[in-house]
């Protein structure tokens, strides 16, 4: 596969900033771009460590970006130091919606904030999940359907409990479900069906799901697993009911897949790590098997895939949690990266621009 993309930003970890992590894009008025991401503070890059959500703005289509500006600060959400995994979307009133995770001890929930002034100021946060629990929603995952409904693909873990001073999980098998809103995010409800994987050697179940709407209105969702594949499921009623998850065409380590429709090319673009943890392959702690990072397009609504290309291929590094944003006849990708020097595969944040003409060029 040929390697594509121009690197336009790389944010490595630094002292007092051990991790720059997953984010999301949105078009602003006047041709500007908004990008938000998780910036970790303190000394730890662990998922539960101190972090804030910051924004950057581009005036030139993503070629250059402003400095960081904090959107969700360290002292917000009292008792919950960790804020991460942001999604952005346009609301029905023309404002911006920012959805992100807050980790509160053993609990984790998504919160929604709104901006009526193109991201300069934000409303107070409102929790999306009415139930108490541990919910995971990846970055760049919340989707508005053609019907206007908002859908939030979600991984739910049964509640942990504390025994002898230690937090112990009730069940490590993550449950795949979806949160739906028909009033532009004011209220949310669970999908009617939910699933996990009952396979003896699967440790976590169905994790970090995503969803895309196909042209006929069918919803196609996927989730990472330990089984060497992304598992897929379908809904024909707007996300209320879902088919039994089965292995998809995407081989994968336990790493998330991202997918978006590219309007200018009338195709789907998928970005993922295609190689499972083969016995002969070297897999290290810091890359987690998440290399290479590749892309492909489908012009028949996901039935077949073509035009495979490489985004990153360093065997000693890992790449994951990709945000995809169409930008004219190009696409912007923001993803986590990291090698042994960084300590882990999601310690730095990298942005690339890929020309779709290069994807479709004959090589």
The CATH architecture is: 6 Propeller
Distance between the termini: 10 Å
Tally of discrete structural domains: 1
Give me the number of helical elements. 1
Low-confidence stretches: none
Tell me the fraction of residues in β-strands, as a range.
Answer: over 45%
Mean pLDDT: 93
Q: What is the CATH class?
A: Mainly Beta
The main sheet comes to: 5 strands, antiparallel
Radius of gyration: 19 Å
Helix content: under 10%
Topology, number of strands: 27
CATH topology value: Neuraminidase
Structural class: mainly beta
What spatial form do the alpha-carbon principal axes imply?
globular
Helix and strand run: EEEEEEEEEEEEEEEEEEEEEEEEEEEH
Q: How would you summarize the topology of this molecule?
A:
Layout: E1 6-11, E2 19-27, E3 33-40, E4 51-58, E5 69-72, E6 82-90, E7 96-104, E8 107-115, E9 126-127, E10 134-136, E11 143-144, E12 150-157, E13 161-163, E14 166-168, E15 175-181, E16 189-190, E17 207-213, E18 219-224, E19 229-235, E20 246-251, E21 258-262, E22 267-272, E23 293-298, E24 306-312, E25 317-327, E26 330-339, E27 348-355, H1 356-360
Antiparallel strand pairs: 1-27, 2-3, 3-4, 4-5, 6-7, 7-8, 8-9, 10-12, 11-12, 12-15, 13-14, 15-16, 17-18, 18-19, 19-20, 21-22, 22-23, 23-24, 25-26, 26-27
List keywords for this structure.
single chain, 363 residues, mainly beta, Neuraminidase, five-stranded antiparallel β-sheet, four-stranded antiparallel β-sheet, 1 helix, 1% helix, 47% strand, globular
Task: Write structural notes for this entry.
A hairpin with a 5-residue loop joins strand 6 and strand 7. The protein is globular, with a radius of gyration of 19 Å. It contains 1 helix and 27 strands. It has one domain (6-360): Neuraminidase, CATH 2.120.10. 45% of the residues are buried. Strands 10, 11, 12, 15 and 16 form a 5-stranded antiparallel beta sheet that branches. The protein has a 4-stranded antiparallel beta sheet with strand order 1-27-26-25. It is mainly β and 363 residues long.
């Amino acid at each position: 596969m040929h390697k594509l993309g121009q690197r336009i930003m790389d944010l490595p970890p630094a002292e007092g900033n051990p991790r720059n992590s997953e984010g999301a894009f949105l078009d602003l008025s006047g041709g500007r771009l908004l990008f938000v991401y998780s910036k970790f503070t303190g000394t730890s890059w662990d998922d539960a460590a101190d972090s804030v959500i910051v924004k950057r703005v581009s005036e030139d289509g993503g070629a250059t970006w402003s400095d960081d500006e904090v959107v969700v600060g360290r002292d917000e959400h009292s008792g919950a130091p960790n804020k991460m995994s942001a999604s952005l979307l346009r609301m029905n009133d023309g404002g911006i919606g920012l959805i992100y995770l807050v980790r509160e001890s053993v609990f984790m929930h998504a919160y929604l904030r709104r901006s009526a002034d193109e991201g300069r100021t934000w409303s107070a946060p409102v929790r999306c999940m009415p139930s108490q629990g541990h919910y995971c929603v990846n970055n760049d995952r919340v989707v508005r359907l053609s019907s206007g409904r908002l859908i939030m693909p979600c991984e739910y873990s049964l509640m942990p409990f504390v025994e002898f001073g230690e937090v112990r999980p009730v069940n490590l098998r993550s449950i795949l479900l979806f949160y739906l809103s028909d009033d532009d995010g004011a209220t949310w409800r669970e999908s009617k069906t939910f699933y996990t994987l009952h396979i003896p050697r699967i440790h976590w179940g169905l994790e970090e799901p995503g969803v895309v709407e196909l042209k006929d209105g069918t919803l196609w969702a996927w989730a990472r697993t330990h089984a060497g594949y992304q598992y897929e499921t379908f809904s024909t009623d707007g996300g209320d009911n879902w088919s039994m998850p089965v292995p998809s065409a995407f081989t994968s380590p336990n790493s998330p897949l991202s997918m978006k429709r590219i309007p200018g090319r009338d195709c789907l673009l998928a970005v993922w790590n295609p190689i499972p943890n083969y016995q002969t392959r070297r897999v290290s702690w810091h890359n987690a098997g998440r290399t290479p990072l590749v892309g492909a397009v489908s012009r028949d609504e996901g039935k077949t895939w073509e035009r495979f290309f490489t985004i990153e291929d360093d065997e000693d590094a890992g790449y994951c949690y990709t945000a995809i944003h169409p930008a004219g006849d190009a696409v912007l990708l923001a993803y986590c990266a990291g090698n042994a020097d960084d300590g882990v595969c999601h310690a730095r944040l990298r942005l690339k621009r890929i020309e779709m003409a290069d994807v479709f060029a004959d090589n």
